[in-house]
From TrEMBL:
<feature type="domain" description="SUEL-type lectin">
    <location>
        <begin position="661"/>
        <end position="748"/>
    </location>
</feature>
<dbReference type="InterPro" id="IPR019801">
    <property type="entry name" value="Glyco_hydro_35_CS"/>
</dbReference>
<dbReference type="InterPro" id="IPR017853">
    <property type="entry name" value="GH"/>
</dbReference>
<dbReference type="GO" id="GO:0004565">
    <property type="term" value="F:beta-galactosidase activity"/>
</dbReference>
<dbReference type="InterPro" id="IPR000922">
    <property type="entry name" value="Lectin_gal-bd_dom"/>
</dbReference>
<dbReference type="InterPro" id="IPR001944">
    <property type="entry name" value="Glycoside_Hdrlase_35"/>
</dbReference>
<dbReference type="InterPro" id="IPR048913">
    <property type="entry name" value="BetaGal_gal-bd"/>
</dbReference>
<dbReference type="InterPro" id="IPR043159">
    <property type="entry name" value="Lectin_gal-bd_sf"/>
</dbReference>
<dbReference type="GO" id="GO:0030246">
    <property type="term" value="F:carbohydrate binding"/>
</dbReference>
<dbReference type="Pfam" id="PF21467">
    <property type="entry name" value="BetaGal_gal-bd"/>
</dbReference>
<comment type="similarity">
    <text>Belongs to the glycosyl hydrolase 35 family.</text>
</comment>
<dbReference type="Pfam" id="PF01301">
    <property type="entry name" value="Glyco_hydro_35"/>
</dbReference>
<dbReference type="InterPro" id="IPR031330">
    <property type="entry name" value="Gly_Hdrlase_35_cat"/>
</dbReference>
<keyword id="KW-0325">Glycoprotein</keyword>
<feature type="signal peptide">
    <location>
        <begin position="1"/>
        <end position="25"/>
    </location>
</feature>
<keyword id="KW-0964">Secreted</keyword>
<dbReference type="GO" id="GO:0005975">
    <property type="term" value="P:carbohydrate metabolic process"/>
</dbReference>
């Protein structure tokens, strides 16, 4: 039944025909309103495709290319969240990002929040809010509302001062307040609905001249209630007023990845079908892809257990490369739907099936990393051992186990808990029990590591239980509690706790000593962090040692230098054989890594870590990493990423793209800019076996000149088009049989 629904919906959209229009963000002041069918810009209903690109997850140098590729992919709008816990200068220059979007003729959808979730540390809220007396986040709570109003007003005033709202001639056509509040509203009881109404009234009262929306908020008053999810064509109850349009703020193109899990990709066909279904069943007129470019969680910006790479298989991958076939498939879908924009926004909906043999096609590409420099020589590296903190090196004491996040304040992942324990051999064997609500726990006894435990994204906690051979007399117990990002969601976020909750020592007879209320000694962060050892100046103050004898040990800092690879291909660091830690390039953190936390497949969840070209100098780049668990830096390599293979698989029954002048089906092979088709690895017109991304073979029917014809048409070119017709290949190789062309080309 679902398969039939897919066919009917798709072909209903595919064969609606009207005038093809290309519309971009208009210059001059624009009036943006809405009715029950769509947003209305300057009196015209608009069917809009949007894509999320978060400015802090890329770099200003990447923005122009990302936006240009999004526009080429058929988008009308770029959507971004606003990140309260970052400033708005340098790499976080929101105004410059929006102006770049405007300069390329696209609109902006601005999700102000202030709570954004977005797998971002603390859901985008600054941690200092946690310390405001009597505050309750996202509730009818005066301390929170006062600061939320101040922040939202600041963002709106900033946009107004730069004339960025459409009503001022800018590109912002819609803004969002709050995010998915309905999922937590019930937890706040009567204060939840009061907060919703206050939030909506506060936002609308700022008079931006453009509409507001609230996603997953079916009781949204004035703002448009929008949908988030995998398939809003099935799950969205619809607008809560006949005067509001159906808007989809998050069509998930991939499932964000967490350490210890396999990737959870989503096919281009499934994404495209979901779009068609939303338009056909829900009268949808605004679809935003979350994410269109995911980018990189630099520094400590990722929330709990979330990988540094974010939505890597979005239409534009982490590095900004076009991810095929998703990008091309959606581009063609946008073109088909845009052909029928007037009919869809003004007509009466109906659908009919045109059979089960209709297909569309988009080129597939394969990405690979090319090793450029192996950092495998001893003399290339230096080492610095961080301190195992005992109580005589602590910063402060407390007669309790302190909550971790309130101490580290999102400035570090690390908190030392230390205590001295007097042991007598007459006590017999002892077992140490530690209960933790952090993410990782390292246990040191008298300066030596005796065990490490970690939790996971599913809720497992790093609780430790192990027999310990204490020495006679006083023993130092040093417990390093580690966060892998702050939480980003859930009600009462300000009440969440982390760190050690209970420490006990169990004797051989079963007796328990509870150390929870003993005098504990604390130190926030690592010694290397306090030295800024990852910076040029800080690294010069450290007493670095030669590498020999300092590999595969915990709490180690490693330093080397390397030259930037030539060319423009994205640069990555291969950390596949390291453990866990963080990496800095010329003082800029490229994020956390955790290669030792394997996915069920047996592979590291992430092994390649993006180094933006703007972080690099031509030569002598400073690379510093902190290895928490133990690894050998000589296994690290500098590599570049590129699309190395392209593939087309097109049936003679395929309809050509509406973007093409060809009336016959065709295969398009296209290498990235600066690369040409250097080899045809496989070509067969007939009944080839296999698919793109699968090993191909010649089938029972094959035109013998297939490879020669493709080589003549494609070799040495950046792109080529091959008609999928009998005439192209010298006649029909098997009369009466449905034929297709399968071709693999290599780019170099």
């Amino acid at each position: 039944m679902l398969a039939d629904l897919k066919k009917k919906v798709f072909f209903f959209l595919f064969f609606l025909v009207s005038t093809w229009k290309i519309a971009t963000a208009a210059e001059g002041n624009a009036e943006v309103t809405y009715d029950g069918r769509s947003l209305i810009i300057n009196g015209t209903r608009r069917l809009l495709f949007s894509g999320s690109i978060h400015y802090p997850r890329s770099t200003p140098q990447m923005w122009p290319s990302l936006i240009a590729k999004a526009k080429e992919g058929g988008l009308d709008v770029i959507q971004t969240c606003v990140f309260w816990n970052y400033n708005f200068s340098g790499r976080f220059d929101l105004v410059s990002f929006i102006k770049e979007v405007q300069s390329q003729g696209l609109y902006v959808s601005l999700r102000i929040g202030p709570f954004i979730q977005a797998e971002w540390s603390y859901g985008g809220l600054p941690f200092w809010l946690h310390d405001v007396p009597d505050i309750v986040f996202r509730s009818d709570n005066e301390p929170f509302k006062f600061r939320m109003r101040k922040y939202v007003t600041k963002i709106v005033d900033l946009m107004k001062s730069e004339r960025l709202f459409a009503s001022q001639g800018g590109p912002i056509i819609i803004s969002q307040i709050e995010n998915e509040y309905k999922t937590v509203e019930a937890a706040f009881h009567e204060k939840g609905p009061l907060y919703v109404n206050w939030t909506a009234s506060m936002a609308v009262g700022l008079q931006t001249g453009v509409p507001w929306m609230m996603c997953k908020q079916d009781d949204a008053p004035d703002p448009i209630n929008a949908c988030n999810g995998l398939n809003c064509g099935l799950t969205f109850a619809g607008p809560n007023s006949p005067k509001k349009p159906a808007i989809w703020t998050e069509n998930w193109t991939f499932k964000y990845q967490v350490y210890g899990k396999n990737p959870r990709p989503r096919s281009a066909q499934d994404i495209a079908f979901a779009v068609a279904l939303f338009i056909a069943k829900k009268n949808g007129s605004f679809v935003n892809y979350y994410m269109y470019h995911g980018g990189t969680n630099f520094g400590k910006s990722a929330s709990s257990y979330v990988t540094t790479a974010y939505y890597d298989q979005a239409p534009l991958d982490e590095y900004g490369l076009i991810w095929k076939p998703t990008w091309g498939h959606l581009r063609d879908l946008h073109a088909v739907i845009k052909q029928s924009e007037d009919a869809l926004l003004w007509g009466v909906y109906s659908n009919s099936s045109l059979g089960q043999q209709q297909e569309v096609s988009a080129q597939t590409g394969e990405r690979s990393a090319t090793p450029i420099q192996y950092l495998s020589q001893d003399q290339q590296w230096q080492a610095f051992a961080d301190e195992v903190i005992s109580q005589n090196k602590s910063s402060f004491t407390a007669k309790e186990l302190k909550e971790q996040m309130s101490l580290i304040k999102d400035a570090t992942d690390y908190l030392w808990y230390t205590i001295s324990y007097n042991h007598s051999q007459h006590d017999g064997p002892q077992t140490l029990h530690v209960s933790s609500r952090a993410h990782v726990l390292h246990v040191f006894i008298n300066g030596k590591l005796v065990g490490t435990v970690h939790g996971d994204h599913d809720g497992a906690l790093p609780n430790f239980e192990q027999p310990i051979e204490f020495r006679e007399g006083w023993n130092d117990i040093s417990l390093l509690s580690v966060m892998v990002g702050l939480p980003d969601s859930g009600p009462y976020l300000e009440r969440r706790v982390a760190g050690l909750r209970r420490v006990r020592i169990q004797g051989s007879g079963g007796s328990l000593r509870d150390l929870r209320n003993w005098v504990w000694h604390y130190k926030v962060g690592l010694t290397g962090e306090s030295m800024l050892i990852f910076s040029e100046q800080g690294s010069e103050t450290a007493e670095w040692k030669s590498l020999q004898g300092y590999t595969n040990k915990p709490l180690m800092w490693y330093k080397t230098r390397f030259d930037a690879p030539k060319g423009d291909d994205p640069v990555v660091l291969n950390l596949e054989n390291m453990g866990k830690g963080e990496v800095w390039i010329n003082g800029e953190s490229i994020g956390r890594y955790w290669a030792s936390f394997k996915a069920p497949s047996g592979d590291p969840t992430q092994s390649l870590y993006h180094i933006p070209r703007s972080f690099l100098k031509p030569s002598a780049n400073l690379l510093v990493l902190f290895e928490e668990l133990g690894g050998d830096p000589r296994s690290i390599g500098v590599e570049t990423m590129s699309i190395f293979r392209v593939c087309g698989h097109v049936s003679e029954l395929h309809y050509p793209s509406v973007l093409s002048k060809n009336k016959d089906p065709y295969a398009l092979l296209q290498c990235p800019q600066g690369r040409n088709i250097s080899m045809i690895e496989f070509a067969s017109y007939g009944t080839p076996l296999g698919e793109c991304l699968a090993y191909p073979n010649i089938g029972n029917c094959h035109a013998p000149e297939s490879e020669a014809i493709i080589k003549k048409a494609c070799l040495g070119k950046q792109e080529c088009t091959i008609l999928v017709t009998d005439e192209m290949f010298g006649g029909d190789p098997c009369v009466g049989t449905r034929k297709s062309l399968l071709v693999f080309g290599r780019c170099s």
